[in-house]
Amino acid sequence: MRLQGKTAIVTGGASGIGKATAELFAREGAAVVVADLDETNGRAVVKAITDAGGQAIFAKVNVADPAHVQAMVESALATFDGVDILFNNAAILIFGSILDTDLGEWRRVLDINLTGVYLCSRAVIPHMKTRGGGAIINMSSSTGAHDGNANAAAYVTSKGGVTLLTRCMAIDHAADNIRVNAIAPGPTDTPMLRRIMSPAEIDAFAASFPTRRLGRVEEIAAVALFLASDEASFVTGSIVAADGGQTAQV
After folding, report:
1. Which of 29, 73, 79, 95 registers the highest number of CB atoms within 10 A of its CB?
2. 143: pLDDT confidence band, cut at 50, 70 and 90?
């Protein structure tokens, strides 16, 4: 029960890494706000948590919309009387070089993947300060945390921005006892990845890593749990690679 008495907001909580993290946080004692645009699957995650004896509510949110973000935070405060943990996990992936990516796609990727982190963090930090501190975990990527990648200009740019924003926020709010870290997962077996790659492409992709497999959502959730917990009390401004050796190989 490493998160007993804490309240956590998990964006992109309806599926994949967000779902696994919301459920793990709840098992570890946190009250969880499952935030997502996908109301059907988001409410299913809430039901799974509450059926198991945990506490959770659903918040429908577009993280790129300041009004949506404010309503999400207000729901957390009204129901659970505070926010201690924020997992900025919501993201989208669009392939293309800058020549293949139109302005609308470019803006949409940066709005959700990067501006969403800014908006959600900006909304919760004042409330964390009143509680004496908190933990923010941002979702970066092995692609964008330290290098580029072909045919994903908007995505890589957004994740590179998340990496440096994480470090800036960690410095700015260390004196407030707010720790800010990021996870840089390697390719992980999520619904988003399976929507954009065929099974054969996924198998070939996984075979290129030292571990010869994709990451599992539960493995990334476990890293988020550590960063959210008091066990990581001296960890801030870190970009934690959870990539099956991908970075080491590069």
Report:
1. 73
2. confident
- Span 144-154, pLDDT tens digits: 777 777 889 99
Alpha-helical (H) ranges within the chain are 16-27, 39-51, 66-80, 103-110, 116-130, 142-145, 153-173, 191-196, 199-207, 217-228, 246-249
Please list the active-site residues: 155
Domain positions in the chain: 7-249
DSSP class of residue 10 equals E
Alpha-carbon span 63 to 11, nearest angstrom: 8
**Beta-carbon count within 10 A of 40 CB:** 8
| Nearest-angstrom CA–CA distance, 34 and 54 | 12
Give the pLDDT mean for 223-237: 98
Q: What angle separates helix 217-228 from helix 16-27, to the nearest 10 degrees?
A: 50
- At 104, is the secondary structure helix, strand, or coil? helix
For residue 26 the two structure tokens come to: 């709840």
| Gyration radius (Cα) of the chain, Å | 17
Query: Which CATH number is associated with domain 7-249?
Result: 3.40.50.720
Model pTM above 0.90: yes
Two tokens, residue 55: 């506490």
Give me 107's structure tokens: 């803006």
* Pair 10, 33: CB distance under 8 Å: yes
